[in-house]
Design brief:
Length: 140
């Protein structure tokens, strides 16, 4: 509810009076990606990136995020997902399997050797998210 309200405040011009955005891009890391998923249906959201989403069976069960991830998959906005091969909360195979359920295409990138905390590969992942964001803004 808080993220939805913030998105609407931004677009409504109440926080950025000089140049309010028409839409926003959400980028969430780990559990934050699940929080963003809950706001992905808001009309003011132009796209969403999920970095290290905890969508593995154990992680999503422990965190209670299955319904939030379903919102991400069902949203008809540009989507991006990034995961490292050494992530202990979700395997690349689990992520790929979940993404096949998406109603629209998800640009997914798997980073060799990167873990959940991005001690390796942070620069490349950040570059890829920014590149995706540029494209998503153009589409919106």
């Amino acid at each position: 509810a808080d993220l939805k309200a913030l998105c609407n405040l931004l677009v409504g011009g109440e926080l950025l009076e000089n140049r309010p955005p028409q839409k926003v891009l959400l980028v969430g890391y780990s559990y934050g990606s699940q929080v963003c998923s809950g706001a992905s249906w808001e009309p003011c959201v132009a796209g969403m990136a999920a970095i290290s989403p905890p969508v593995g069976t154990m992680a999503s069960t422990m965190l209670g995020t299955k319904s939030l991830w379903k919102s991400f998959l069902a949203a008809k906005i540009p989507k991006f997902a990034a995961l490292g091969t050494a992530d202990t909360f979700c395997s690349p195979e689990s992520l790929q399997q979940k993404l096949t359920l998406s109603e629209t295409q998800v640009e997914a990138k798997i980073y060799e050797g990167s873990d959940h905390f991005w001690f390796k590969g942070l620069e490349k992942m950040t570059e890829d998210v920014l590149q995706w964001a540029d494209q998503a803004i153009t589409v919106a």
